[in-house]
Amino acid sequence: MKFLHGFSNKTRIQILESIKTEEKTVTQIVDDLNGNQSNISQHLACLKGCRLIVGRQDGKYVYYRVRNQLVRDLLTNFDVVLEDIQNDIACCNSHIYQ
């Protein structure tokens, strides 16, 4: 499912968190994540293809934002669930699930 692919990478999650409450340019996102522009741009293209974000052209800049309130709510719910189960995840033995 393409939609879930957008959530399957740490950098993409960080990008979504960075633009969850306000739109930002690629440069602002790169600064937030201390990443490199090429890598961030590739992840933005993926997130756009998964329809999790949208871009708005303003002159020479493109401003990215989370697509809508439903996606923002989903990100918030991820945070709530992860906080609730973080201790269980920390002691999870990954070899059991391979």
Helix fraction bin: 55-70%
Terminal Cα span:
21 Å
Largest sheet: 3 strands, antiparallel
- Summed up, the helix count is 5
Q: What is the residue-mean pLDDT, rounded to a whole number?
A: 88
As a percent range, the share of strand residues is 5-15%
Q: Please tell me what the overall shape is.
A: globular
Structural category is alpha+beta
The poorly predicted ranges are none
Total strand segments = 3
Succession of helices and strands: HHEHHEEH
What labels would you give this structure?
globular, alpha+beta, single chain, 98 residues
If you had to describe this structure to a student in words, what would you say it looks like?
This protein has 98 residues and is of the alpha+beta class. Helices cover 57% and strands 14% of the residues. It contains 5 helices and 3 strands. Strand 2 and strand 3 form a beta hairpin. The longest helix has 22 residues, at 69-90. The radius of gyration is 15 Å and the shape is globular.
Quick structural summary:
The protein is of the alpha+beta class. It has helices at residues 2-5, 10-18, 26-33, 37-49, 69-90, and strands at residues 24-25, 53-58, 61-66. Strands 1-3-2 form a 3-stranded antiparallel β-sheet.
